[in-house]
Design goal:
Elements lengths: L5 H22 L9 E2 L5 E2 L1 H17 L5 E3 L7 H4 L4 E9 L1 H6 L5 E8 L2 E9 L4 E6 L3 E6 L5 E2 L4 E2 L7 E5 L5 H8 L5 E5 L3 H7 L5 E9 H13 L3 E4 L14 E8 L1 E2 L5
Parallel strand pairs: 3-4, 10-16, 11-12
Antiparallel strand pairs: 1-2, 4-5, 5-6, 6-7, 7-8, 8-9, 13-15, 14-15
């Protein structure tokens, strides 16, 4: 297992910081400078996505050139090759490009290290909030605000019939399955947010549940999953209840549910 020394952790955090600064530089520029285009799946792509991806790839290779990188913005690695990976980086250089375009600040940078099929290190940075979350397998989850020392975070213990139940919901990806799930908890309050912010709401104990039905990709969930898990929560397949795993033949997630410290048996 990789040894996460203080120097290595600081190097990884500095990568997220450098990518954050570049994204914010572009974010505050004129929209005509964003070089907005659309990929084959009609998802948006901006100059900020590409710039962040370039920085993260370059810096990760400087740390260890032998660890492969899978990123939303890199050329696809065929399964026949990546199935042999023991370690690899899994990156979403700008998660929530739709929120970036709306200028609501609800986008993140996600960097994860996968060992075989599970995440062992993850960073989720929220550039516009000047906050960063990270976790190391077996060592806890932490929040880092600009100018402050890392603070250990914990998910909240709850039962699904609690009067103060809070469910985090996607700002841009609401569908009927989500509405049906929410209807199971009529007393719950709802918090709407973009990108991986919903994971962080659960990890930090602000929300209790985050359901996400529909297609996402492994790079959308990996870094945030280990942060939730190290905070005491869990991230499970929406239909089987099993822990999400990585480096599947198909890199898509079918759907998942994020729980804090739930006292009830759900599956």
């Amino acid at each position: 297992m990789m040894n996460f020394t203080t120097n290595l952790i600081n190097d990884l955090l500095s990568i997220a910081e450098e990518a954050k600064q570049k994204i914010l530089e572009i974010y505050i520029s004129t929209e005509s400078d964003w070089e907005l285009e659309f990929k084959k799946d009609l998802s948006p792509l901006t100059k900020a996505d590409i710039a962040s991806n370039t920085i993260i790839n370059k810096r990760l290779k400087e740390i260890n050139k032998n660890i492969p990188i899978i990123s939303e913005e890199n050329k696809e690695v065929v399964y026949a090759d990546r199935r042999k990976f023991e370690y690899y980086w899994l990156v979403d250089p700008l998660d929530g490009t739709k929120e970036f375009i709306k200028r609501n600040g609800e986008f993140t940078i996600n960097i994860a290290l996968i060992h075989k099929n599970h995440c062992v290190f993850g960073i989720t940075s929220i550039p516009c909030q000047q906050k960063l979350y990270y976790a190391i397998s077996g060592q806890g989850a932490f929040k880092l605000k600009m100018g402050s020392l890392p603070e250990r975070i914990f998910a909240t213990e709850f039962s699904t019939d609690d009067d103060n139940l809070v469910i985090a919901l996607s700002r841009s990806h609401m569908n009927q399955e989500t509405l049906d799930f929410v209807a199971l908890y009529p007393k719950a309050k709802h918090m709407i947010a973009g990108s991986a912010l919903k994971f962080m709401l659960v990890a930090e104990g602000i929300a209790h549940i985050y359901p996400r039905f529909g297609r996402t990709m492994e790079w959308d969930s990996a870094a945030s999953q280990i942060i939730v898990e190290e905070a005491g929560g869990k991230v499970v397949h929406a239909y089987t209840g099993k822990q999400l795993e990585y480096n599947k033949e198909d890199l898509a997630n079918e759907g998942f549910i994020v729980f804090g410290k739930c006292l009830d048996k759900i599956f």
